[in-house]
Write a structure and sequence with these properties.
disordered N terminus, two-stranded antiparallel sheet, mainly alpha
């Protein structure tokens, strides 16, 4: 008799790849978030006040509208034109986040704004050029996804208050659930993106199947962790204690992600949203940190 699903071993290759990508992405993102805070850098989302819930609602509306636009492009654009549009979006995302990351690192180290800007621009152009030249390289796609996730997650996190971030997570989890199980449009979007090897997902190849992990499943935990870092620093927590809530949140996120991918690895071909279980565990972790006095 064959093994039942519950008796099947954990896919160690998948687990190892996910762990490495998670640690590198979130570690880089937290470092960048700390540098943003050190240099008082943040973005204005919808309003100037980071504690305004309107920022969360604005981001949700933007995500829904952008998803709708992508669906329309998938329906009406020819495959080559669709690829060019998506490739342009990818290139802009890679350039912007690579620039942000390297420029803030160099500026913090040297204090030279002009030199850090030039270095950031050159680094962004280099990554974009490599992605265009080696468009089918999966490892390079994962590397650029790391930079895109770390840069975007850190910037949004330090620009959004902790309670608006929680609202955003809950709303996005609900949207993720609906988009995967009800309307199923997220599945269609994912298939279109992964077939073009674009840096909107991470590739996790195993001997039997290549799994795809959306960058959003790593961006949103980093947003929460970066926002928690801002919250802890503002509350007067000393170094390095103000990193503790962020690290605990990321550990909770990792557990949710592992559980989701473990299930998917045992049911190949099944689409499962990772954000809802991640959000539930992260909120529990944040509540524990609050009760513990962090």
């Amino acid at each position: 008799m064959g093994k039942t699903v519950s008796e099947m071993p954990i896919n160690t290759s998948l687990l190892l790849q996910l762990t490495v990508i998670f640690i590198i992405t979130q570690g880089l993102g937290l470092i960048v978030a700390g540098l943003f805070l050190q240099n008082n850098l943040h973005a204005t989302l919808l309003t100037e006040n980071p504690e305004d819930i309107e920022n969360s609602l604005g981001l949700i509306v933007w995500i829904v509208v952008f998803s709708g636009i992508l669906l329309l492009m998938m329906r009406f654009l020819k495959e080559k034109m669709l690829y060019l549009v998506l490739k342009t979006i990818e290139s802009l995302a890679i350039f912007g986040t690579a620039y942000l990351i390297l420029s803030v690192i160099i500026f913090t180290a040297t204090g030279n704004a002009e030199f850090s800007d030039i270095a950031g621009i050159c680094f962004g152009i280099l990554l974009v050029a490599l992605r265009i030249i080696f468009a089918k390289n999966v490892l390079l796609r994962n590397i650029t996804s790391v930079f895109a996730t770390a840069g975007a997650g850190a910037l949004i996190g330090v620009s959004l208050g902790i309670w608006p971030t929680i609202v955003l997570l809950v709303l996005l989890s609900a949207y993720d659930f609906i988009a995967v199980f009800k309307t199923k449009h997220m599945v269609r979007l994912a298939k279109s993106v992964t077939s073009k090897n674009l840096s909107f997902t991470y590739a996790l190849p195993t001997p039997s199947h290549q799994f795809e992990l959306g960058t959003g499943d790593l961006v949103m935990p980093l947003v929460f962790a970066s926002s928690a870092l801002t919250y802890s620093q503002a509350a007067g927590a000393p170094y390095p204690a103000y990193f503790i809530p962020s690290i605990v949140i990321l550990i909770a996120s990792y557990i949710g992600l592992i559980a989701t991918l473990h299930y998917v690895s045992r049911h190949e071909g099944t689409a499962l949203p990772a954000l809802p279980p991640q959000t539930a565990l992260m909120l529990v972790a944040f509540a524990i940190m609050k009760v513990a006095g962090f």
